[in-house]
Amino acid sequence: MSTTTQRPGLRVVGTEEGSPYPKASLLLRGGARLVDVVIAWTLYQSTGPAGIVIALLYLLFADGMIQGQSPGKKLFGVKVVYLPTRQGARHRDSVLRNAPFGLTIILSMMPELGFKAFIAGVVVIGVIEAVKCWRDPDGIRLGDLWAQTQVVDGKVVAGQTQLSPLAEPTRAPARLKTTVEKSDSSPS
Q: Could you list the residue range(s) of the whole structural domain that residue 106 is in?
């Protein structure tokens, strides 16, 4: 049962028991995250003094780029879905769900503790997010809770555990040539 609590200017929406989507493979999610981190690192290295800001912006906004897919998620076939509408995540959702990882980049900007603060942030935030994602039956981590999103297999339709018929390439029906014999014709 869906519950809604109303306060002036604040609306909290509770979801039904679980998500309509099955849990996406953690291996695919990890591979997608690795590709996105490599892209962010490349942006950081190749854009000079503004590199860290560009890498931060990429990590925050990446999941909203291609209808809920970052380049890494597109490559690995997973997608971020905004659960209330069941559509691909938008940029706002991407920023909310990736805020914990963005915090690690911000920690690296600290003057004297930069790299040490970055590593500490990656370890603490990474472990918390990984354990939450691994233990949750839907694979939802803290960032997903904040953004009301879930990473799903791009080939699965909500409420089904099997592949969507749209996920597989459809073939045009074969055209059969049939000969129709007339029932009233007789051999001459």
A: 22-153
Contact by Cβ (8 Å): 94, 63: yes
Collect the ranges in the chain with pLDDT lower than 70: 1-18, 156-188
Q: How many alpha carbons lie under 13 Å from residue 105 in its C-beta half-sphere?
A: 20
Assess if residue 46 is contained within a domain: yes
CA dihedral 149, 155, 156, 157 (to 10 degrees): 90
CA atoms within 13 A on the CB side of 10: 3
Q: What residues have CB less than 8 Å from 6, skipping those under 6 apart?
A: none
d(CA 20, CA 58): 29
Q: What is the pLDDT of residues 116-160, one digit of tens each?
A: 888 888 889 888 988 988 998 888 898 898 999 999 987 765 555
User: Which residue is associated with the tokens 């694979």?
Assistant: 139
**Which candidate, 58, 89, 81, 82, places its Cα nearest to that of 71?**
58
CB 154 within 8 A of CB 69: yes
Structurally, the chain folds into a number of domains equal to 1
Within a domain: 48: yes
Please report whether residue 61 resides in a domain: yes
Report the alpha-carbon distance of residue 102 to residue 99 in Å, rounded: 5
User: Is this model's pTM higher than 0.90 or not?
Assistant: no
